[in-house]
Structure formats: C-alpha cells, structure tokens
Amino acid sequence: MSSVLKKYSVGFRIWISEEHGHFIGLGRVRLLENIKKTGSITKGAKAMKMSYRQAWQMVEDMNSRSEKPLVEKILGGKGGGGAVLTETGEKAIKLFYRLDEKVMKLSNELSKTLKL
Questions:
Q1: Over its length of 116 residues, how does the chain's per-residue pLDDT go in tens digits?
Q2: Non-local CB neighbours of 63 within 8 Å, separated by 6+ positions
Q3: Is 11 strand, coil or helix?
Q4: What DSSP string describes 15-53?
Q5: Domain residue spans in the chain?
C-alpha cells in the first residue's frame, strides 16, 4: 500500500439564527445585495435565477425575524414601485461577512493541522 499524503480541509456554512429558526445565511445575503443593487425584489431575484415568490418569502421571513425590517417596499407610482435595503439590512450584511471572515480564518487554521 502506497503512502500518499492527503490534504484535508475543514469547512463551515454560516447561518445566523434566532429562536424560531434560521434568519440569514449566504443566499439571503446575496439576495439583499441584489435588491440593494437593483432597487427591486423582482430584479434581485432574477439576478439569482430565483422566482419573485421565493425572494418575497425570504424577504418577509427576514423582516419578521429581525427587530427592524431589512427591506422596505416602495409603492408603485408613475415609474413603478421597488424596494430599498434599510440601514438594518446594511448592518445584517456587514455582520454576516464579519462572522464569515472569522470562521474562515478558524477553518484555515484547523485545516493546516488536520491529519488522519
């Protein structure tokens, strides 16, 4: 039997949860970023190849689990409606990426010492 040195790594997936379940993860963060970029839940969903219904349900779920809404709908008028990311939504994105960076550092450190 040959002795081939294998390299292993440790991986994590981040979810921020509250008492009733998952609140925000990478997919939801990307949806929030797309809503911010496009000013629309519909366009944000399309950028991710996601249905409007699924995106709207995610937004509603995040808004209901947060102390303050992450996304606010703008009612239609002559130019149509849209959506805007709130200050709380901006904070949620930043918090997620800060946590993700810390976990990635830990993952990399653990991976360096992992041997079977």
A1: 567 778 888 888 999 999 988 899 999 999 999 999 999 999 999 999 999 999 999 999 999 999 999 999 988 766 677 999 999 999 999 999 999 999 999 999 988 888 87
A2: 69, 70, 71
A3: coil
A4: EEEETTEEEEEHHHHHHHHHHHHHS-HHHHHHHTT--HH
A5: 25-109
Residue 16 to residue 62: CA distance in whole angstroms: 11
Give the distance between the most distant pair of CA atoms in the chain.
74
CATH architecture of 25-109: Orthogonal Bundle (1.10)
**What is the pTM (predicted TM-score) of this model?**
0.86
